[in-house]
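Session log. Operator J.P. requested a structure for one protein chain; no other inputs attached. Running the standard single-chain path with token output.
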Amino acid sequence: MRYFSWLLVVMLAASCHTPTDETLRTRDAKQHAMADITLLKTELRNLHREIAAPTPHPQQIQETFRSARRHYKAVEYLAEYLVPRVAKRLNGPALQKVEIDADEITTTDPNGFQVVEAQLFPEYAPQNKQALVNEVAYLVQLTEQLETNLSVSTLKDRQLFEAMRLQVVRILSLGISGFDSPVALYSLPESVASLSRMKEILAPYMADADLTALRKALTGAIAFLRKNPLDFNGFDRAAFIRDHLTPLSKSLLAAQQALDIPVSTYRAPLRPDFTTVFSDKAFDLSAFAPNDAQKPDPLEAHLGKILFYDPFLAGDGGRSCASCHLNDRAFTDGLPFATSTDGNQDGMRNTPTILNAGLSRSTAYDLTAYTLEDRVEKVLLNPKELHTTPEAVGQKLKTVPEYVALFKKSFPTQNPTDAQMGRMAVRAISSYMRTLTSLNSPIDRFLRGEKVQVSPEAIRGFNLFMGKAKCGTCHFAPLYNGTVPPAYMEAESEVLGVPEKPLTAGATISPDLGKFALLKMDIHRHAFKTTTVRNAALTAPYMHNGVYATLDDVLDFYNRGGGAGIGISLPNQTLPPDPLNLTKDELVALRLFIESLNDTSPVTPPVRDFPPIPDGNKFTRKR
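Structure written below.
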């Protein structure tokens, strides 16, 4: 997994500072971290010895592994912040990765804790004992790298607080969901280890100021986790987030401000001054945009809305973006496949919603478009969609005086070329699409502590989504898409084994190869972007090929283990193939939770009146 995050930017910036930037409190935090790494190395060496022994003792091996994980979790907040590349190798998912270098594209096998965990749990059953011994030895090497890198890193008060605040997000989205403990399901004790170390590190700060709320939040969160630390499926994640992690996140920022520790001002997907990730102001849409589109402009978005609905842009003047993205269907069209310019559906995919599309890295099913601008331009160029070019669009728009005036108001470029004006149109449409963002669903408001009615069954569904059903290990809260927290700079894809027809046995794989088209790597065959679950109750039918008519059908597919559970054999399926064994009541609760994510508040009436085309214009608009 490749991470290009603002965390790395911060790490590099930190290396430019001198040790005088550190304080007694941050040096103390580093000393604790170095001590945790020493204990981590000791436990990993013990694990290596125990596995290599002629007569292994499985229970002892498992307990040693758990102890090593707890020590890692105590230092994870600084490892991820200051040495992210090593941290990802230590604790990344047990999946093959594609590495892109200057000369070649290669596939690499996974390493780290999760590879080891899969062979130790639920039963000790290594497929290759020597390979497992080697994997643990590699973990020791990585820990030594972490130790070396951390020892020479400078840590300021600001960085320490940012690292802790991001760790709260990591616990919420990747920890308690089981993302990085998918087999052992040891997430709750690991979260205790992480928060306990944070509490100890913050003690000197608490002595210098009245930080009662922070102390109370940390104490309460740790106590809640300790109530029944091994009941992964029964853990009340909704209550933990609402009553403990949300107050903790808010109080960490408040403490930082009370101590006059500056908050960073650089641009990042998750704003450096976020209070809680469930806040509707937590994310900066401009950080997902290209450099020339990072200053939101209402005039530009207004122009973009008109262009979005105007069929004048299309090659034949007969269809617009809104021909497939309909207001009253949450900007989808209700069809299994979108309809092409020639009236058929050959070679097309299901129309995705564009609600919250601005909160994602890569906006196409096959991840071939990195930004909204990329995606809009591809739609213009596609012969099956708008069948035109930016240059042709610019040429058309210049013949309509009212459009020329609107562009002059929205863009500083004087006398643009046809191609420049066409790309301004692309940018304007993308700006409008970014206004179609809202994180104010009932469950959002509930989890950030507001008084709002959410049914007990929907809350139960959230707990299932983030726990037993394992949905949250791919659809990461709070965006519920594949944009990886807490950096939110990478979009994940998954191989689910989506069938061609909605069969529950003897199914055949959909022929669409998905992401394989991007790099032609076998592990990407039939891989598709992990799309958002927000507003999913409004966007049927589902999957890239619209094969499932209802949410219940989708949930049944996942409950069976994806393609593997309906007769499809894919060596690269990334969705765990084991049935989830969810009951009918649990499936209903999941659906009710997904329905609680509905929020169409950004949707406004469509544009009906467009700038008039002068008489005699060779370009036309078909109504």
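Operator note: The chain has 20 helices and four strands.
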